[in-house]
Design brief:
The protein has 494 residues and is an alpha/beta fold. It folds into two domains: 282 residues, Roll (dip2346 fold like), CATH 3.10.630; 137 residues, Cytidine Deaminase, domain 2 (3-Layer(aba) Sandwich), CATH 3.40.140.40. Helices cover 45% and strands 12% of the residues. Helix 1 crosses helix 3, helix 9 packs parallel to helix 13 and helix 18 packs across helix 19. It starts with 7 loop residues before the first helix and ends in a 12-residue tail after the last strand.
Length: 494
């Protein structure tokens, strides 16, 4: 079992209390800008072993009687059919997914706000759809020279033109399907409108990373830089916090750059600024829940290497710029690590060199490494997956979990009837075949029973895998990396 470096229960307890305290500080109403992923924060789970991907949701559930959700979506993102990088679905569809997900766990979704609204056609179509579904929808408009023209922004011609979002509860969580959705602007616009109506309300920001009370070059904070390499963002020391308190804290470069503007907006709305630094605005308590710093350091180093491979593959696919890879290389050098800390890399390269074909290696949670090679019947990922299940189930390596008599008809179906050129079984097809065999074969049944034990395993492939195989590994909780090359020289890859 993997070592634990983070106390999840302590985190939920501390974090929910911190937010309650901040609500009270502002007289009973708080707009909380909620950054990062709410339901599936796998990055945090990887760099903080013990952190559960749904921790932030569980924390909100502690406050569910006080909380309501406002989802912000940029109207331009709707018009451009912008997609999430992890799920591949468009931002507008993700809004619907988020509403369903919040409702399913008992959190109240009050409304959706369309930011940067300029009568975009697809945004209007989406607005109509939301209203048909019974959702309240509001519009926020572009403001010329935002965010620097403070007199215009904080006026009836700026925030004043935006719809006032009617809220019912003391904690208003403003979230979004992705970055650039206008969460902060939504919060500040609401402060302006609330102040005009004589209602006391405040603003705070909640993001897990960077962790403000860890050193600048701590691997956990560097892992966050690695995760945002495509944005070219940096963690830097908060100079405003140091000047105010003489204490060194870490913050996000863009938050520090925008702080003088936010300070001016606050002063324009309230005649004073409730915060002396960007760090003051945050409510993140993750740093106080780290119980084993060394475990988290090692996990973060592994994440940086995973991000390095991810960027190299993205560059090979033409969806990443060279500077992303260079930045990740520099991050690795800064803490003295190479790809070799990922044990599966060396193991799989040796197999590929020996066999002359693609190979996959899987490091199991107990440290054992199994490999799989390409064969006429199975792809390398499928072979590695079956070998991993054998190892976990104590099944002799010589035993065939799936008979060729079962595999061959599937291959015939794929090639002759489904139009596939590759007859070898992908991981999803192998798992279906294995499930069928498990009805009559006790070894296959034992292998299937091991699937949950794969969670937390590490895998490395000598070629970029298909989306299907990549998805299966992700669903099984296996952290996958690939060498930045394809098995074939084709230009189109599924």
């Amino acid at each position: 079992m993997s070592a634990i470096g983070f106390d999840n229960e302590k985190y939920i307890r501390l974090q929910s209390q911190k937010i309650r305290d901040r609500i009270e500080l502002f007289g009973g109403k708080l707009y909380l800008e909620f950054g990062g992923k709410l339901f599936d924060d796998y990055h945090a789970a990887r760099v903080l072993p013990g952190f559960m991907p749904d921790s932030k949701v569980k924390m909100l559930l502690k406050l569910k009687d006080q909380a309501e959700i406002v989802i912000a979506i940029n109207a331009d993102a709707i018009e451009k059919n912008k997609r999430r990088g992890d799920t591949g679905i468009t931002y507008d569809l993700d809004v619907l997914r988020l509403i369903d997900a919040f409702r399913e766990i008992g959190l109240y979704v009050g409304s959706v706000v369309l930011t940067q609204y300029r009568s975009q056609h697809l945004a209007e179509v989406f607005e109509k759809k939301l209203k048909t579904l019974g959702m309240k929808v509001y519009r926020h408009y572009p403001i010329p020279d935002y965010p620097y023209n403070i007199p215009l922004i904080v006026s009836d011609e700026g925030y004043g033109k935006n719809d006032y979002i009617e809220t019912r509860r003391s904690l208003v969580v403003v979230t979004a399907p992705g970055p650039g959705s206008g969460k902060m602007a939504t919060c500040l616009s609401q402060l302006y409108h609330e102040h005009k109506r004589g209602i006391k309300a405040g603003y705070a920001k909640f993001e897990t990373f960077p962790i403000w009370n860890l050193p600048l070059k701590h691997p956990i904070n560097l892992a966050y830089e690695a995760a945002t390499a495509d944005l070219n963002d940096l963690n830097i020391i908060d100079p405003y916090h140091y000047e105010a308190y003489g204490v060194t804290t870490i913050n996000y470069n863009r938050d520090i750059e925008i702080f003088p503007v936010l300070e001016a907006i606050f002063k324009k709305i309230f005649d004073y600024c409730p915060y002396r630094s960007p760090t003051d605005m945050g409510v993140n308590m993750a740093g106080y829940a780290i119980v084993d710093d060394e475990v988290c350091r090692e996990a973060a180093k592994q994440e940086i290497v995973r991000r390095f491979y991810s960027s190299r593959c993205a560059q090979r696919q033409g969806i990443a710029e060279p500077f992303e890879v260079y930045k990740l290389e520099m991050l690795m050098k800064s803490i003295g690590i190479t790809q070799d800390i990922r044990k599966t890399v060396r193991a799989v390269l040796e197999v590929a060199e020996r066999t002359g074909g693609p190979a996959v290696a899987i490091e199991l949670p107990d440290g054992r490494i199994v490999t799989g090679k390409t064969s006429p019947l199975l792809g390398a990922s499928s072979a590695a997956l079956l070998n991993a299940l054998k190892a976990l189930g104590g099944i002799d390596d010589s035993i065939e979990l799936i008979s060729p008599a079962v595999i061959e008809p599937i291959q015939k179906l794929k090639v002759e009837h489904m139009g596939n050129s590759n007859p070898r079984l992908h991981t999803d097809e192998v798992l279906i075949a294995l499930s069928i065999c498990a009805v009559t074969d006790r070894n296959a049944a034992r292998a299937i029973a091991q699937l949950s034990k794969l969670k937390g395993s590490e895998a490395h492939s000598t070629v970029i895998l298909s989306k299907v195989d990549e998805s299966v590994f992700h669903k099984l909780g296996v952290n996958l990396t690939c060498e930045p090359k394809y098995e074939t020289k084709k230009l189109y890859h599924k």
